[in-house]
Design goal:
The complex is a heterodimer. Chain A is mainly beta. Chain A is built from no helices and eleven strands. Classes of the chains: A mainly beta, B mainly beta.
């Protein structure tokens, strides 16, 4: 079956511009996660959705970052007024949901963001 | 709070040799532990996970890991390395307590396999 897909695969933008990153989870998965992978910080949790609600936004690094999920499916991560330190690979994952702590998270290939 | 330490950011082995990638965790509640593999320009793929059943966990591609509570370790092993095993490996922890959906990852270990 289809896995988690993300678009675009690569995004180059200029400092100060806004960007939107998209994630299509595995069909039927109620839980969705965003992580950021960078050389200096490794893999960092950003935000978690259960259905359309985001009970945990604690990992978002600043108020320039926001995310939404519609119809319990597609999610969009938006970064406003991008800065060079936002350059990283943004990974999306989904899981069936409900098996607290033991759910397998299935990852997409990521979006590589470069801010010039 | 939970954390993961992977000893060795880079491990190099010969083809056919034993692979041992080290992972130690810290968790205030019983942990759940995961090993993921990442091939170049790809997302993370689950190798295996420990969820409080058997302490010796077998995964895909011939990998296994043993949960040792007394040592707070979850090392990943494979008896005989293949060239196709060259990738970056991440150990991660979640738990049965609050925020149990959140995976906390180690920094990763890059495995090189020499012919």
């Amino acid at each position: 079956g289809a896995g988690v897909s993300q678009s675009p695969s690569n995004k180059v933008t200029e400092k100060g511009k806004d960007v939107e990153l998209r994630c299509d989870p595995i069909s039927g998965h109620t839980a969705l996660y965003w992580y950021r992978q960078s050389l200096g910080q490794g893999l960092e949790f950003l935000i978690y959705f259960q259905g359309n609600s985001a009970p945990d936004k604690s990992g978002l690094p600043s108020d320039r970052f926001s995310a939404e999920r519609t119809g319990g499916s597609v999610s969009t991560l938006t970064i406003q007024r991008t800065q060079q330190e936002d350059s990283a690979v943004y990974l999306c994952a989904s899981s069936p949901g409900g098996s607290w702590g033991t759910d397998t998270q299935y990852f997409g290939p990521g979006t590589r963001l470069t801010v010039l | 709070a939970q954390s993961v330490t992977q000893l060795g950011s880079h491990v190099s082995v010969s083809e056919g040799a034993l692979v041992l990638l080290r992972c130690n965790y810290s968790s205030s509640v019983p942990p759940y532990l995961f090993w993921y593999v990442q091939y170049p320009n790809q997302g993370l793929q689950l190798l295996l996970k420990y969820t409080s059943a058997a302490t010796l966990v077998k995964g895909i591609n011939g990998f296994e890991a043993e949960f040792k509570k007394s040592e707070t370790s979850f090392h990943l092993t494979k008896p005989s390395a293949h060239m196709s095993d060259a990738a970056e490996y991440f150990c991660a922890v979640s738990n049965s307590g609050g925020s149990n959906y959140k995976l906390t990852f180690g920094k990763g270990t890059l495995l090189t396999v020499n012919p």
